[in-house]
Write the structure tokens for this entry.
Amino acid sequence: MNKFLSFIICLLMIPTWCAADNHEKPPTLIADGWTMVPKEGHGAEFEAALKAHLKMRMEKGDPRHWDTYVPVTGDKLNNYVVRSCCFEWADQDKYAKWSNEHMGEHFNETVHPHVQKYMHNFTEIDTRNSNWGENTKANFVGVTHFEVKSGKGSDMSASIKSMSTLAKDNGWPRNWSWSYPVGGDGGVTLATPYANYADMAPMEESFYDFVVKHKKSKKKAEKMFDQFNGAIKSTHYTIYRHRVDLSMHEDED
């Protein structure tokens, strides 16, 4: 088994998000994500300002729930990802109107003075091929971005569908979520949630062995993974920690 095959098997062994399993095409759901990098030396001030701004949003009755995540791996440990999910594209128009009517200059006056850089993007959630679950503990989230080779998009889509369908139909005990960035270099993103670091340890049965068992053929299993691996140009993996203290709390609604 090659190293890349081992890598994707490890990813799918870990716990993420969900969709109704029916024959109708589910609505396209999107997530809204902002990445902010505080100015050097402004970390504490930035966090205090963000906390105050989110509190104000709750007091104003913000119809969306915003969660903040910070990376615990990689070289961008000063990034703060503030994310809201999930809604349809048409909801974005309504939310933009609500923001214009209720937010005023609060963000610019409190948070913005401490921010060096912003990045913003929407991601489309692949609800049909994802399986997060209602009570998933996502104190940490592993995020893998796959850059897809030119001309290999259909192979990637087919392999995502076949692996996800097999996992859901046969009771794979973990969760996962596929999504597609709207802007930037595109590609495919796989999110995997963990309750804690212990959750990141491999399970006794690998996803590869799980596939072999249910395919009843090692050859068929390797063909499935070969199709997936053959569509990938590169990958990047980061683990994020959920900052509950910098997120909206349901008990404060």
About this structure: The first strand starts at residue 29 and ends at 38. Residues 1-23 have pLDDT under 50 and may be disordered.
